[in-house]
Amino acid sequence: MNPVEETYQRFARLRQTALTVGILALLVSAVGFALAGKTQFFRSYHYAYMVWMCLTLGMFGLTLLHHTVRGSWGLPILRFLEAGASSLPLMLVLFLPVLVGMSALYPWARPEVVQANEHLQHKTGYLNVPFFVARSAVYFAVWIALATALRRSSLRQDETGDATLLQKRTNLSAPGLVLFVLTVSFAMIDWVMSLEPLWQSSIYGAWFIVGQGLSAFAFSTAVLLIAARHKPFADVVTPNLTRDLGNLTFTFVILWAYTSFSQFLIMWSANLPEEVVYYVKRNQHGWQYLSAVLTVGQFFLPFLLLLSSRVKRYNGLLLRVMVFILVMRVVDLFWIIQPAFGLEAPRVHWLDITLLAGIGGLWLTWFAQQVCTAPLLPRHDPRLQEAWLYEHSASPIA
Q1: Three-state SS across 176-224?
Q2: Cβ within 8 Å of residue 235, ≥6 positions away
Q3: Is omega for the bond preceding 130 within 30 degrees of 0, making it cis?
Q4: Is 132's pLDDT higher than 90?
Q5: What is the pTM of this model?
Q6: What is the pLDDT of residues 138-162, one digit of tens each?
Q7: What is the DSSP annotation of 230-248?
Q8: Closest CA to 158 of 79, 244, 227, 251
Q9: What is the pLDDT of residues 372-381, one digit of tens each?
Q10: For 160-184, b where at least 16 C-beta lie within 10 A, e where not — what string?
């Protein structure tokens, strides 16, 4: 067995392990449906689903970004980005329980709640079940069509060496990126912001998109660093590449802090009761401590660590930072979603964990399968050779 085949075998083992863990966790969660009740089950499911959906959308967004700007930084992680984006059909199937549990998740999906609230009655033209389902179908149709077209084009270039496909992907990805921003913004408004239908934010979509990009950079870089000791990644992972990936992650850390603070500042300065309730709810009864953890853990610590050229040059150090960022992203989504369900104080239900593991196991199974069905690095891409020459000729820069 050659070294590249051994790398494929490692992803195959990941697929088998993830599938086993995912099935077991979902079986335990099914028992939890009977023990904890459908309301708790669907709320935990929604949280777990959004954690993995945000990662999926982040991987898809970075795929579009890479093909648009055609940066060499994306070539070593391209197969991981494509594999993550290719899980959108799986996420479509896993979205069905969210539709089934809409009445337990969304106040506007309960007729008695709408009838008792005049403000909700004014929003029924947009917030109603048929229109919600139709919009979600459009989002998935756009995402799956774009992701499938890019994946097929990329693999076709591997087979044929047709360099014109590179420009075609750029021509598709540039407008695709605009569609991505629009559809993801509306999807996050529908799926998450409408959990609290009396509250609204004009920066909500951008806030989520930045967070998704941060998750995707952290995850794809972590996978690359883990695989960096083995062929073919050992040939392309150099201090210059890890510096670039660290700098891009650093950029998204700053963007996340900017969008988060901008949203808070706008609402604080306006001081409107229907807006400030969002932060009032998340800064009392123990939630304020989680807010402090996120401020430090998702901004200040990564910011200071990724400023260091030493951290970005050494795989082990950068890997720890990426894993830490991923953990903070899970905590961040908990802070966003759980208070919307009326959870007065931070409390992790065991279904939150089992469903997070169950959906994650299925997602990682699909991810590893997609990685195993394609070349680990793009073939016949002239940028890969250019990047290799650059990486092995230029000295690392902080």
Answers
A1: HHHHHHHHHHHHHHHHCHHHCCCCCCCCHHHHHHHHHHHHHHHHHHHHH
A2: 388
A3: no
A4: yes
A5: 0.94
A6: 999 999 999 999 999 999 998 998 8
A7: STTGGGT--HHHHHHHHHH
A8: 79
A9: 999 999 887 7
A10: eeeeebbebbeebbeebbeebeebb
